[in-house]
Specification:
- The protein is mainly β and 501 residues long.
- The chain has two domains: 310 residues, 5 Propeller (Tachylectin-2, Chain A), CATH 2.115.10.20; 148 residues, Exo-inulinase, domain 1 (Jelly Rolls).
- It contains one helix and 35 strands.
- Strand 7 and strand 8 form a beta hairpin.
- The longest helix is centred in the N-terminal third of the chain and has 21 residues.
- Bound molecules: beta-D-fructofuranose (FRU).
């Protein structure tokens, strides 16, 4: 026995390592994923007392959608997340049906408008969510927590808003100081309509107005939010209404936004000649903004679900976990000749966890340039001058015959993100895809920032004027990176790569 003991323990050790490494092949390192099981939309993004909360749609029992409950994670720096126990679980109704906790938001009721908390208590958290009874009803309900979201009580007079509809969901609530009221934005998905309600106590809601039947109506409307957003280089702000709905490419999902004015009752959009999308990739959906951010954040911050319902259930991340969340992104508006446009960037906090791995300046490329860095977890920033080149490409997650290709065509000003040869693509007929967006050069320059994290790519173009988020599932994991120029020489003005600790 003595003799075989070391072999036996080595065998058991290998077994444990093996079973842990296989499903972890695609596990992101700095994007939040639940330790196990299925996740979808972020819910109740709220800041309180030094903690950022990420509640999210979660199935505690498996890695497919079902038993929807609110999972919970917290972070002190929007960077590293700690998973906490399920906050709001699905529950049984007296008639034998179940109520699932669908998407919603969380607010801090610092004036105790709800009366749920002790007199003078300023840290009460209230969750506003859709109570969903499968095949029967969707209405809005509330729950409250006096211990920073660790334990919750459901309001005993739920639901607080019920239109008797089967599809009526995803409340997002803001405090509107001018009227000292809460304003809820919620959608009737099948009618492509958002509704605005107001309440003094989070319990009684009255309809203010409706907005809808315009913009992208190729898919149902979900997860709306209304946010006051600063306009860069001015003291002005505008209101942004975001709606999760269809994608520029038919039958995929994305988020669209409208910019306009909100007077406490009605949202009036600016004239827009085109549909505006928050992120041009296939995998950014259901993002909502944080509530109650401290003043030190001068811009709103959002987090989105990385996935597309088209194939979300089949992404090959192994048996343990499925779905993930974007990094926290701050956003603002830019005034352009065509109207206001969204600009988004990863929050600065991300930098604090990084270490510089490589940097170059003013390098001419003529053909292929292989970077002296390999990896699948990095933050790459590059400023390129195509000069005489007709096409420049950035190739990442590259191995023999495999790469995700970011390509810029100077003549057409088209930037594309091509994952058709990125690795595993056949698990679903609609996964293999190329995104295309128009990106004019700025003073002859193209600037890209790519957050790569095992299986997630978040690409920010021209300092956040465009964003593209996608899953990719490399097979060979060589992690090579190259830049190419075709048809002439191009110049890399600056390039840096940071690894993430
Ligand atoms: C969006 C969504 C929401 C709903 C939730 C259910 O992804 O369909 O409309 O509340 O997911 O999990």
């Amino acid at each position: 026995m003595k003799k075989i003991a070391p072999f036996l323990s080595f065998f058991l050790f290998s077994l444990v390592c093996f079973s842990q490494t296989i499903p972890q092949e695609y596990r992101p390192q700095y994007h939040y994923t639940a330790p196990k099981n299925w996740v979808n939309d972020p819910n109740g993004l709220v800041y309180l007392d030094g903690e950022y909360h990420l509640f999210y749609q979660y199935n505690p029992f498996g890695n497919v959608w079902g038993h929807m409950s609110w999972g919970h994670a917290v972070s002190k720096d929007l960077n590293r997340w700690e998973t906490l126990p399920v906050a709001l679980p699905e529950f049984d109704n007296p008639d034998g049906t179940q109520t699932m906790i669908f998407s919603g938001c969380a607010v801090i009721d610092s004036l105790n408008t709800s009366g749920f908390f002790e007199k003078g208590f300023t840290k009460g958290m209230v969750a506003v969510f859709t109570s969903h009874i499968e095949g029967k009803a969707q209405h809005q309900s509330i729950a409250y927590s006096a211990d920073k979201g660790r334990t919750w009580k459901r309001y005993d007079k739920n639901p607080v808003l019920d239109l008797g509809m089967k599809d009526f969901r995803d409340p997002n609530v803001i405090w509107y100081p001018e009227k000292q009221v809460w304003i809820m934005t919620v959608v009737k998905p099948l009618e492509y309509t958002a509704q605005f309600y107001e309440s003094k106590d989070l319990k009684t809601w009255s309809l203010l107005s409706e907005f809808g039947k315009q913009g992208d109506m190729t898919k149902i409307w979900e997860c709306p939010s209304l946010t006051k957003v600063p306009v860069e280089g001015s003291n002005e702000s505008k209101w942004v209404l975001m709606i999760s709905s269809g994608h520029r490419q038919k039958n995929y999902l994305a988020m669209q936004y409208f910019v306009g004015d909100f007077d406490g009752k009605t949202f009036t959009p600016q004239k827009q000649n085109e549909i505006l999308y928050v992120d041009e990739g296939k995998d950014f959906y259901a993002a909502i903004p944080f509530s109650n951010l401290p003043k030190s954040h001068t811009k709103p911050i959002m987090i989105g679900w990385i996935n597309d319902w088209e194939y979300a259930r089949e992404i090959p991340t192994g048996d343990t976990w499925r779905g993930g969340f974007s990094v926290a992104r701050e956003f603002s508006l830019k005034k352009t000749a065509e109207g206001f446009r969204l600009v988004q960037q990863p929050v600065a906090q991300l930098k604090s966890a990084q270490k510089e791995a490589f940097r170059i300046k003013n390098k001419v490329i003529d053909g292929v340039y292989n970077l002296p860095f390999k990896g699948e977890v990095f933050d790459l920033e590059v400023e390129l001058r195509p000069h005489r080149a007709k096409v420049v490409t950035l190739n990442v997650f590259q191995s023999q015959g495999e790469a995700t290709v970011i390509r810029y065509d100077v003549a057409t000003q088209e930037l594309s993100l091509d994952r058709t040869k990125s690795g595993q693509v056949n698990f679903h007929p609609r996964f293999s895809s190329v995104e295309r967006v128009k990106v004019p050069l700025k003073e002859g320059k193209l600037s890209l920032r790519l957050l790569a994290d095992k299986s997630i790519l978040e690409l920010f173009v021209q300092n956040g004027e465009q964003a593209l988020t996608e899953w990719v599932f490399p097979i060979q994991h060589e992690g090579e990176i190259s830049l190419t120029s075709e048809g002439g020489k191009a110049n890399i003005s600056a390039l840096s790569i940071h690894t993430i600790r």
